[in-house]
Amino acid sequence: MGREIHMFFFPFFAQGHVIPTVDMAKLFASRGVKTTIVTTPVNASFFSNTIERSRESGVHIGVELLKFPAADVGLPEGCESADLLPTSPYENYEKLLKFMQAVQLLQKPFEKLLGECKPDCLVADLFFPWATDAANKFGIPRLVFQGTSYFSLCATECMRLYEPYKKVQSDSEPFVVPNLPGDIEFNQKPTAGFLKTRCRN
């Protein structure tokens, strides 16, 4: 029997990046590949229940934690996700710059982790461009995860053409995007403003 393959997954610290990355890790783990998600303590808490349910069903996913250097850049402790930044545009921009500075500071501890664990492959988010250099130091192939995909562009175009969000009666009522494989549903309340802005002719 050959050596077990070990995949590292390193999502950007925002729910829209973490969720699909966790799904990818589950898919690899369900096929017998050793998988590890690298993140920070606060971000790990967002998907800990998912990891636990996977373990209960026999799918094991490891988690390695990096300390997020929030205080080093002037952010409050615990501000480890882009989703936790302020909503005020001016304040958010200032905090976002600090947040990205903190992300940059993770390169060295991440390299240390790669050296210790020596995974066979790294799937790292587009917002970690330095992950390529980190992986190269140890001869580890790096794949880039980019959240925006051809499928999302197709979904946007279908919504622009057919405007399914106009056929629901309330902000909480889901709608199906037509002419896509399967029944792809969106909930209007969190997406209506974005869709109406993007889908005007």
TrEMBL record:
List the Gene3D superfamilies: Glycogen Phosphorylase B
Establish whether keyword Transmembrane is in the entry: no
Looking up SUPFAM superfamilies in the UniProt record yields: UDP-Glycosyltransferase/glycogen phosphorylase
Give the record's keywords alphabetically: Glycosyltransferase, Transferase
An annotated Gene Ontology molecular function: UDP-glucosyltransferase activity
- Family the UniProt entry places it in: Belongs to the UDP-glycosyltransferase family.
State the name under which the record lists this protein.
Scopoletin glucosyltransferase
